[in-house]
Design a protein that fits this description.
Strand order of the largest sheet: 1-2-6-3
Structural class: alpha+beta
CATH topology: Cytochrome p450
Largest sheet: 4 strands, mixed
Strand content: 5-15%
Distance between the termini: 59 Å
Number of strands: 10
């Protein structure tokens, strides 16, 4: 049977067939006296609740279940305990207030297959993880991030030039912006504005791995790790066919940039950045220096993967909503004109007067979160919450989508409305939608850097360009039908659009002049 017939669910079908032969004991865990599991849908024998989940948007299924069973839900996925959290309050209570027990990650059978077992984001809770986490946190603390603003401004200006020269390639330009900021701040690598080999290799590896690490497929191979020993030519084993390419690209993204920075440090051709600063702190007399370097290398590559995907995806959402909601775009552009004028681009000194731009970006992250199910946690030991038993080793799935679409907190949640983040006087509310970055000890340590990159890019794009629906050969507007794709992370499908300078006389020379006077 050809793979196109089996489709994206082929791994699941193969697992079902083999699963009946391999597993026969999918019973619920034995409970201590006086407690019960959280409520949830009745599982099928062997399969659990897998067939009841819309694998294209499982977060929507989980939110629907929440309406019936509550904000803490117990499900079974091929014999694995899965606890879904639909409530921000419960997520904070467990993942932050009890973070010592909820900061682990599930064992992912596909991590080694794809060559991503070294990433801080997926790593189990351990001393190795703590070392990497410390390196990243030290490099991107909130008080350190302002040092990177010149880099972020320069890269956002390059984005404007790329958009002006080739607006049809807008998704690629957003990836280049996000990747080049990270490459510079982490490796002191100055990416070319066009067709940079280092950026393209790394983003390609990231794109492939995110696409293949779909939760429903990962669940199959975690439940049946013996499937990974089957030959790649069998139907349902698409994962094994693409794995060698992903593993090679991930290894290159780990090794090549780090080697560049090490060579540059030896010759004096690189400046301060995450890798340089930590390499200079290494104690050469320490017999464990090799493992220290490895931890730094893995931390650096993790930052690239996490930072690039988040920034580019949010900016894709940003451009989409500027087209879908032209009144919001017009309001933002009038505000920029009133504060900045038309003779220069906005700077960070203008940010306090441009709260509406921050409100738009917060709403972009809430309206369509990039990681709708976050990255799953796991329990170190069993726990009891409000009389409900949470088993040791259970997968904990924070449903960020449900939290972002909580009708009580965000009325009419499907509507894009930046005003929900503004007080009556126009200042920002205290709600920074921080939960989209994760919880507790697993919260994204690069969030402060990402937020600055987002603001710098968005305010520049609004200053220079007008985003509209594209027109066909007869001059009729082409309707935009929003759609999203992805696996672990989600971003908008490519959509037709018109990106033109707001000033009809704007050309590359004029934009370069505007950039020079704004620095």
């Amino acid at each position: 049977m050809p793979d196109r017939i089996i489709g994206g669910f082929d791994a699941l079908l193969a697992a079902v067939v083999i699963g009946f032969a391999l597993r026969s004991y999918f019973a619920k865990p034995k409970l201590p006296r006086g407690v019960r599991l959280p409520p949830g849908p009745a599982p099928l024998p062997f399969l659990g609740n897998v067939l009841a989940i819309d694998v294209s948007t499982p977060w929507v299924t989980y939110k629907t279940w929440g309406n019936q069973y509550g904000d803490l839900i117990y499900t079974r996925l091929f014999g694995q305990d899965n606890i879904i959290i639909n409530s921000e309050e419960i997520a904070r209570e467990l993942l932050e207030n009890r973070s010592h027990n909820y900061s682990d990650r599930p064992e992912l059978a596909t991590s080694e297959l794809f060559g991503v077992d070294w990433t801080t984001a997926f790593m189990r809770y351990s001393s190795r993880w703590r070392i990497q986490r410390k390196i990243i946190q030290q490099s991107f603390r909130q008080d350190v991030v302002p040092e990177f603003r010149p880099i972020q401004v320069a890269k956002s200006h390059e984005l404007l030039l790329n958009m002006l020269e080739d607006p049809s390639n807008y998704p690629k330009h957003l990836d280049v912006l996000a990747g080049s900021v990270i490459m510079s701040t982490v490796y002191s690598y100055e990416a070319a504005r066009h067709d940079d080999d280092m950026i393209e290799r790394a983003t390609h590896a990231l794109e492939l791995s995110m696409k293949e690490m779909r939760p429903e497929v990962v669940a199959v191979f975690c439940a049946f790790p013996s499937l990974l020993r089957l030959p790649s030519w069998l139907p349902g084993m698409h994962l094994k066919r693409v794995a060698p390419l992903i593993k090679r690209l991930m290894r290159e993204s780990l090794e090549f940039p780090f080697a560049f920075t090490e060579r540059g440090l030896a010759t004096g051709s690189v400046s301060s950045c995450m890798v340089v600063d930590h390499l200079q702190k290494l104690d050469e007399s320490n017999t464990d220096i090799t493992s220290q370097k490895e931890a730094l290398k893995e931390s650096a590559a993790t930052v690239f993967g996490a930072g690039t995907e988040t920034t580019a995806a949010v900016l894709m959402n940003f451009i989409l909503v500027m087209i879908l909601y032209p009144d919001i775009q017009e309001k933002a552009q009038k505000l920029i004109e009133n504060v900045v004028g038309s003779k220069r681009l906005p700077t960070f000194q203008d940010r306090p007067s441009l709260s509406y731009i921050d409100a738009i970006l917060r709403e972009c992250q809430r309206w369509r979160p990039v990681f709708p199910l976050a990255i799953m946690h796991a329990t170190v030991d069993s726990d009891i919450y409000n009389g409900f038993y949470i088993p040791k080793g259970a997968t904990i799935t924070p449903n960020i989508w449900a939290m972002c679409h909580n009708e009580a907190k965000y009325p009419n949640p499907d509507e894009f409305n930046p005003d929900r983040f503004l007080n009556a006087d126009g200042t920002l509310t205290d709600d920074a939608v921080s939960f989209v970055w994760g919880f507790g000890r697993r919260i994204c340590p690069g969030r402060f850097l990402a937020e600055v990159s987002l603001w710098s890019a968005a305010v520049g794009l609004l200053s220079v360009f007008k985003f509209e629906k594209a027109k066909d050969e007869n001059g009729r507007e082409i309707e935009v039908i929003p759609g999203w794709h992805g696996g672990l992370s989600v971003r908008p499908n490519r959509f037709p659009c018109s990106i033109t300078p707001r000033d009809a006389s704007m050309d590359v020379s004029a934009l370069q002049h505007l950039i020079r006077v704004s620095v």
